[in-house]
Structure formats: C-alpha cells, structure tokens
Amino acid sequence: MTDTQPSDTEPQTTLERLRRQLRGLYFGRDRQAIRFQVALLLVDVAILAFFITGPYLRAGSAYVAVDLAIAAVIAFELAARALIAPNLRYWLMRPMTWVDLVILATLLVPSHLHNFAFLRVLRIWAISQSKLVTLMLYRTGNGDKEDIIEACANFLVFLFLVTGFVYSNFFYGADGFAGFVDALYFSVATVTTTGFGDVILPGTLGKLTSIVTMIIGISLFVRLAQAIVRPYKVTFPCPQCGLSRHEADAVHCKACGHVLNIPDEGA
User: Fold this and answer.
1) Which fold has domain 142-230?
2) Which of 120, 195, 247, 257 is 20 to 30 A from residue 18's alpha carbon, by CA?
3) Cα distance between the two ends of the chain
4) Could you give the 3-state DSSP secondary structure of residue 245?
5) Tens digits of pLDDT across the chain (267 residues)
6) For the chain, where do the domains classified as CATH 1.10.287.70 start and end?
C-alpha cells in the first residue's frame, strides 16, 4: 500500500500554474498578453499623472483613497514580479524593485516619508523601459528613434526628480500649485543654465542642489540634443547575425565581428 500526499504536490502545482500564467501575460505576444501589457502601461501613465499633479490634489478628500489604491497596484506588481522571477536574487537586483519599494513606502506612510515622494517620478523611466514601447516603435517603423525616446525619458526623469526634491525640501509649505510651479521653474532655469535668479534655494543644501542640477542637467540636455541631431545608434541589420542596432561609426558588428558597410548620411 502506497501513501499519497496530494497536499504536498497540489499547492506547488497551483503555484506553478499561476507563475506560468503570469509569465505569459508579462512576456507573451498573443492578443491577451498584449492587452494585459497595454493595461499595465496605461495604469503606469495614470499613476505618473497622479504623482505629477499630486501637489494640486493633496487637499482633496479623495487623495488618500487614490493614494491607497495606487499602493495596492504597486504591491500587486511587486508580488507578481517576484513570482515570475527566476529566483529571489534576480528580483532583488532589479533597480525598479527597489524604486517600487520606496514608492510603496511613501504611499503607505506619506506623513513621514513625504520628502522621498519625488522618487515616484522614476515611473517615467519604468515606462520608457517597457518592452511594449520598444515593440510599438519597431512595429510603427520608428525603431531608429529608440535613442531619442531614451534620452527624452532620462532628461524628464532628472528634471522632475529635481523638481520633486526642490518642492519637497523648499516649497512644500506653499500652496500646491504655486509651490510646485516655483520648483519646476527653478529646475528648468537651472538645468538649462539660464539662471534668471528670481527663484533661488537658500542655505548650503540649496547651493549644493543647484550645483548638482547644473552639472548633471546640462550633460543630459547635450545628450538629448545629440540623440535628436545625430543618434548614437542606427538601424542597419548585420548580414551575418542579423543584429540591427549599431553605433553610427561602427566598422564591425559587435555581436559576430562581421564587417559592416553602414551608409554615412553626412557624406
């Protein structure tokens, strides 16, 4: 007589089934998976819009409810990502895992962590890194604009990170609209090195913030201009291995070493 232990195997089977379903939804290319990924992208955009407009809405009665709803969505995505990850180490090594954990903490205890709320803007970077965005670019024939999209995303992330930091530490006591606009105005004037000087940050922290903003901001601004005028990479499929993205001045394919003959647009 053999003993069967369905209770030991059934939970594992259910867990594996759920894991396969989630992986299919997150990484699949069928109609159901695309719909799921589009829904996640729209949710990310809606969350980002709420974060950016948060300073105007924080006095509203529905603000806390929306705040907790977003926390539930981010908690669900964290759990789903952990479930489909190959192992816990891989999940913990993802930069967006830690970003989402910090964002979740700021949503759950906003009274104590409001100074870190500016990190929520990193959702812009998460949206730009979505494989669905890359797929849409290539399907619409705009794959060569991937560098421009990435440069714009990096610039916007930095701009709104600085704006959020300045607002949280220097203008949080002001009215939502006026304080946020002052923070954004200062960030744009500093990043572009225009420096009108009518809005300045007091104290040592203010000076250090201005210095870091100017140094990093102008670098990202130049990178954005380069990406628009002359992208770092061009679309030219390698005849040997098929790799389609190469540096504009590449002589050999970085994947297989095959000699390339990329046309020089400036010639």
Assistant:
1) Helix Hairpins (1.10.287)
2) 120
3) 83
4) strand
5) 444 554 545 555 787 888 888 888 887 777 888 888 788 778 877 877 777 666 666 666 677 788 788 888 888 888 888 888 888 888 888 888 888 888 888 888 876 776 666 777 777 766 666 666 666 656 665 555 666 777 777 788 788 888 878 887 787 766 657 777 888 888 888 888 787 878 888 888 888 888 888 888 888 877 777 766 665 666 677 877 777 766 666 777 777 777 777 766 544
6) 142-230
